[in-house]
Protein 1
Amino acid sequence: MEIDTPTDSGATSSGPGSVSVRLHPLVVLNISEHWTRYKVRENSPGVIVYGALLGTQEGHHVEISNSFELLLDDPHFSVNAEFYSTRESQCKQVYPDLDIVGWYATGGPITEKDELLNRCKN
């Protein structure tokens, strides 16, 4: 019988160029609540929601601690700058040590819209 050796955390590293990520459970709950709220409101099976990820990055270690939803302006598929700015400043007041470290999208594979969001300057 073989027993796997336990690791010290859920994050793994496979080499010098790798990145370790620690995802706090609150982020999973926030994203789930965000998606559920839109799913109920839209009553559509293909609901996709987008949001910002807050955390810290030190070298190749990223810790994602919180998140907030993003409002997108259709048809240009750009982030609503006013909403984003307000939410970012609110988060900075409560969590001064956290920065935007990325974004999330629910749904299937990455789409052209997701690529546009990734390039968004707002």
Protein 2
Amino acid sequence: MRLARGPGIGRLLEASGWLTLAVLIVGCAPESGPTGAPVPTPTVYTSAVNFADLPGWQGDNQAEALAALTKSCSKLASMPPETDLGGLAGPARHMQQICSALQGTSITSAREGRAFFERWFAPVSLPADPEAEALFTGYFEPEVAGRRTPAPGAEPLYARPPEMVEVDLGEFRPSLRGTRLAGHVENGQLVPMPDRASIQDGALAGRNLELVWILDPVEAFFLHIQGSGRVRLADGSVMHVGYAGSNGHPYYAIGRTLLRRGAIAASEMSLQSIAAWLREHPGEMRSLMAENASYVFFETRSPSGPIGSAGVPLTPRRSIAVDPFHVPLHLPVWVETRVPVSGGGDAVFAQLMLAQDTGAAIRGRQRGDLFFGHGSQAREQAGRMRASGRIWALAPRSHIDASREPR
């Protein structure tokens, strides 16, 4: 995205952008972030609960989540202690204290992992959001075939144009926090960047902005939605590319058009069904893609894996994109939902995850986008992932205790 993801995965997310079914169907966007939408009130506190109240808490191997927490700790270590992580996390010093404690431990078992999180964190129940659906989707890191030079029918991935600027309106007015604009300056005024249709028609061609050419234009389109991925080149080497910004135009979910036309039934809507339709209708493919005016720019990345909005590499099935207005980045969360399984159907998913990404499609207290990783199984699960569920935040105990002290 998945969307308000800055440099990160994109998911249909701002950085994070990656393909989520919600984005394809509902039309929320990952790449560019909200543009003028009302800013919700951040969640500060809700009701504390016990770990015994978390469904499936005893059945997870919490030690596996420590790898994701360690990645967040590496980012948190560079922050001034009083950096405000937001609401339930408080100043960075609370998480830094936990990270220091983690460094001095050797945890290998599920029991030890549970004990660590129970010692340092307190679970908090987030209230239902009357204006946002409790919905869980998924995203993944795609791998596509590409070339370093143009090829017939291939689609280029463009680097970010040097003239493009992004503006966070929250820096000018607090009431506009979370609202971002992108464009370029002409005659002293900020004007829009070219939209997808213009770029498809060559608006950026001939400027040496092409990073790589993707052989399948359908895969290139979905790579834009995911916002990050791997490009396998002719010599067998792999180029890692990630989100470098978007053109600032609003995201439109092409799945809406296909639903309206009756081309795909709602019950059959998925990444796979949309890709199949595009390939079966090559004459309409580019015009349908152009209905989504949003366009992602890329940069090459190190092979450490996709980077989320929190600025750390994502961990499959342990990293999740959240709404940072309600769940601060780097915070552990307990997630209960259902995930697709191989061969069809789904299964209960109750696991400890780290809030390490965001997305413009991810809005609300009970909204999450699960990172499934890389490969065909991850693609299959992410493409089919759409379920109700619930999130509990794990807040640092020291922050909870400090907030209860009389002032």
Protein 3
Amino acid sequence: MGKLRKNMLTLAGTGVAVACAATLTAVPALSAKQDVAPQAESPVAASPYLYNGWGNPPAPSEVQGATGIKDFTLAFINADGSCNPAWDGTRPLDGQDKATIDEIRAGGGDVIPSIGGWSGNKLGEVCTDAQSLAGAYQKVIDAYGLKAIDIDIESTEVETPASRDRVIEALKITKEANPGLKTVVTFGTTTTGPNENGKAMIAKAAEIGADIDVWTQMPFDFNGTDMAQDTITTTDALKEQVKTAFGYDDAAAYAHVGISSMNGNTDQPAEHVDVAAFQKMADYAKEKGLGRFTFWSVNRDRPCDGSGDVSSCSGAEQQPWEFSSIVAGFAG
């Protein structure tokens, strides 16, 4: 990821997110008397990223009502300075983000928190061993009664073998302690498939028997020229990598891989994911039976008004929430 996503996440990781979060309209917690719609079985398959740290976060209930999308991937949990989880490393688990989760669940959806991201203090680096890292993951799971977690492993956390292996080992421990929990690993890629870091994670998981449910690539910021075709090419290559490592057949391998795209302008000037390209990706994902199809981010899923605020619009010719609607179509 380049300046659009990296810079915004760097600002969030240095404390600007606290100011951004403070401007959010508080969402009242549900009372025991309120009716809560039934939740989906798992939020993994179709849950676009929503980030409370910047980009004029929309009310999830508005997006749910307009698109049919139910579930969201809520970003980002990092370390608070010790081996302890907090939203953006600063916001407590029982604060504004908990209110967002309550609102999503009241609309019949569920959440998959994303742990990591590009910037900030990563739990995989701050926690010194797999057991303590698994303990940090467990705090997040227990705080919200989660069905799934996403580890967005980037930058030095994935580039350093010790932290990379620690994450995979901790996910194995966490899966064993939480029967039925779904785990997603999200990471960068090249136009021809996983880079050496991605391959190493897959190999490590196969070696120790870590049952990762979905390996999800981010096919952008990779010098793409045809974003739909490049995404298909790299996802097919990921499928082959997973198939070989775990001995899956084609159908099972596709079910264990996913796509996390970026809507509209990416961080590279020559890259742009328009609605048509994103629809092609969704059609491919549905045809192949991928385990996950999502994008960064709902905050940007609206047309720009000329203000230049790239954190709250996509730069694509689109209707409001059009990318989210496509993800809802993948789910349905």
Protein 4
Amino acid sequence: MPTPSLIVGLRLDGKQAAVFGNDQAAAASRAVFALDAGAHVIFYGPEIPESLAKWANVGRINAKPTSTYASSDMSQFSVAFVAGSTDLVAEKIARDARAAGVPINVTNNAELSDFTLMPTYRGSSGLQIAVTTNGVAPRVASRLLKEITSKLPTDLEPQLKQVAHLSNVAREAEQQRDQLMATMEVGDKDADISASATVGNTPALQNSSPGSVSDQAPQYMDLSTLRTSANQLSQEVSVQTAASYVAHALSDLCFVYSAPEQLLGEAALAWSRRAEKNAYGEWVSALRMETRHGAGHAVWGALSSGSRVAAIASSASLPYMVPVLMELVERKQPVVIHVAAQSLDEAADVQTDFADVFAALQTNAVFLNSSSAQEAHDVAAIAHAVAHTAQIPVIHVTSAANNESSNIKVLSHQQLAAFVSQVADNGPVSADVAVQQVLDRFKHKFSRTYCQLEYSGSKDAQTVFVSLGQVAADALAALPDILKQGNTGVLNVRALRPWDHAQFLANLPASARRLVVLSGTRGTGSAHDALLADVSVAAFVGNPLVPLSVSGENVYGFGSVGVSNTMRTVLGIEPIAEEEEEQQQPETAAASAEPMAVEDDVLAVAKRLAFPEAYGTRLEARPGERTFEVQVSSLRRMTPDTYDRNIIHIEFDTRGTDLTYEIGDALGVYGYNDQNQVRSFCQEYGLDGDVLVTAVKDGQTQTRSIFSWLTYALDLFGRPSKKFYAALADFAADEKEA
């Protein structure tokens, strides 16, 4: 038996390679190997072969007579090839190469060669695959290579190009990161606290879109209500609020990277403004951050100061965090990023989308996902426990399109802190071990079961649908009805990373022959098929007992009925008819609408005014803001009246106020509606402008008169938002109007 060789790769980009010999065909093939690797070739021989002319024309290869070669020339080369020279010449060149420490390959002479060339597949993205039998059966090696490359996933090259792009982003961010770290006092904890206090007191953006008072109430609730509802059925909670509750409870600093189309992290920001304490009895600073290149450096700096850190982010911000995530994984820093997987469809509606999440998979962080509010709460707790047990960043992905609220069982602050502490005592361990340990511990302690891979359906299923997140939830909801007409199953991928081929195959029924991946990602190709690629590779290299066919169906934006019908079509079952919504004209809808339930309690308002200390009542024009009333000294319209955009020059007179303004400062200017127009509006709709209305706005309970709400708090006569037009389209009588 031949001695196994050590397979290595030489980086020749920008280096020189020497090719010797009279055998032009063999010499040309060696030269191409070096040229493809980026080397500059010096060709010692009679003349350059015609096949290398294109390289010579661009200066990548130079020809020299063999007689001009001297032993001292060898030191300038990084690798040497000999093809077709006499034995004496080959031996001399080999001695020179060994003396200079240059690896050499001599055609048909293993004794003089330091290495051999293997049949190699070269992809357009940099992928290379080589097979060797150490000279025993070269043709077998070539056939094996052909067999392997013929079964590569069709989208593998685009995915590798995406990885290359992200690597370039990482390199571009390297210099910015070094500059930032050079100026950050990461060891100065007081500096971090000061910065946190300054930014954390910045109020959240106000929702100024038109609507009734009830429309302005955010989806999150008071933190005290969640805490008192621990382990009991609480009030209705949304997916994002459930995840934010855990992030706030288990962190000292919470960074919010929200998308413009979604008020993500508003609950955490509101709790921070109200100085709500976390599970460790400490105040939490929530900071709103920008999504841009280098996003995540603040997280890194906070971790370096020893703080417990969490982040709430839209999936669009995740690719920008890739360089930092790679560093945090390498440095074993425990942090949890709660990511809302989302994108906007053509109707400007938020849809669950994993495309940006898939683009960050190569960071080697742990990726867990959830769909419902209860899952978001539980998996968030599991994510924090895994991060501290494995000392690794964990990405908890929630379904942003799931706006429904539901009753959930909430863990108290004490339970959350104790759970994380108990499992962290078993660490540090590897990521795969940590995930399984935490899942087992959560099941034992709270009697709620989660697995890395969760199979539901028939034990005799031949077709298994594989998915994750909201798409998996929709598939599981459709499964009971589909099972009445055929054997199938759904495999919910709870842990996208770490990924284990053997574990994936072990969770499939033995009868499985066909795997269909349901992808909820926009677009085609690139990183959107990462789950399909994982499943394809598992089916190919995971040594399944029987051959498995793998295919994919993209159900982005389909909804629950669309997912069900896709599954039925794959199985050859008749799809179900989608329910047609009853089209109502605005006046008909208004007439049939149920009256809004409004609590009428004059005494409650009176008590807040009479006892401001007890109720924390403050008389402010805009709660949470430091406001000034100034005079407008100049107001000029810069664009003509016929122009559809308004550019206005305004000058303010700040005399008599405490307002100071320096270059670089930002001022928020709050306009208000014309009071005469508001009075006409109230009269037309039969509203008493002096009636007081109490509502929750930006996480604070505010009491205003109807006249004040319509004048100062609502953009009543402003330009409607995109969502307004999207909702209005449902009432269009003409298709062109929609």
